[in-house]
Amino acid sequence: LRLDEIDPSHVHKIKQRRLAASTINKTLRQLAAIVHAAERWGVIQRGSLSFKRVKQPARHPKFYDFDQYRQLTAAARVNAEAYAAVRLGGDAGLRRGEILGLRWANVHFDRHKLLVCDNLVRSACDSPTWVMRAPKGGRPRWVPMTEPLEKALRVLEHRGEHVLTGPEGQHLTPSWLTKRLAVAQRLAGVARGGTHTLRHTFCSHLMLRGVHVRTIQKLAGHAKLSTTEIYMHLVAEVEEDAIRRLREDECDE
User: Fold this and answer.
1) Residues 6+ apart with CB under 8 A from 154
2) CA distance 50 to 40
């Protein structure tokens, strides 16, 4: 099938295939990119094809409940840097690059707060070089430190400008963090998950404790409120559980 032969019926057939919505949307994105590039280059004439995505079912983020998180932090204590990293993700909601990019200059023990303004990323796709960029949301943010997090940071050696460093003072890499987290997860007997699971845990625990969604958005550094709202289902679950318990109490009377 030639690019200039693609019409709305072909797009419709893709949408009707018995595949996951995410797979269909990925195919549509790829096809749209090819067609639009061909139009820009003058290979085909500009058309009016619509590559509107299909609706995907809501996916709730995976996180550790309160007991699981306690087990994980206890298991992570075998390594001081790993323990601090887990606390930075689960107690402060830092992203992977923000954990690795955190500098001592931005740890304010006197104010019991962190200034999150650095994000460790690759300089280019597949590049072995790492550079510091602004956080994903584009803006620095202040995050209060919990007492366990503050204690975890205070015991670390100052070997360089970054909080998490190797023996020579060099910043650590994502692969180091992934391996250390996997060890802690195995020792704790909890499900495997990347560092973003810790961030989901941070946001979920705040939501479960009744913190306002706007406050969570600010602390997590979400650019859009809709990103934070994916945790709102937890509120409904807590409310349903409360009503269920109320009914159980009435039955016992």
Assistant:
1) 109
2) 16
Out of 16-30, 77-91, 132-146, the most confident range is 77-91
Write down the pLDDT at residue 253.
Answer: 55
Q: In terms of residue numbers, what domain contains 43?
A: 1-57
Q: Are residues 156 and 84 in the same domain?
A: yes
**Interval 189-201 mean pLDDT:** 96
| CB-count exposure of residue 248 (10 Å: 0-12, 13-18, 19+) | exposed
Unique residue bearing structure tokens 């001592």: 104
Q: What is the pLDDT of residue 171?
A: 84
Confidence label for 81 from pLDDT (cuts 50, 70 and 90): very high
CB atoms within 10 A of CB 178: 13
Instruction: Give yes or no for residue 246 having a pLDDT over 70.
Output: no
Q: Taking a C-beta distance cutoff of 8 angstroms, is the pair 136, 95 a contact?
A: yes
Structure tokens given for 172: 């650590």
Output the six-digit token pair for 80: 């001081």
Same-domain check for residues 89 and 1: no
What's the mean pLDDT in 228-242?
A: 79
Cα separation of 213 and 226, whole Å? 10
> Please, what sign has the CA dihedral across residues 187, 191, 194, 195?
negative
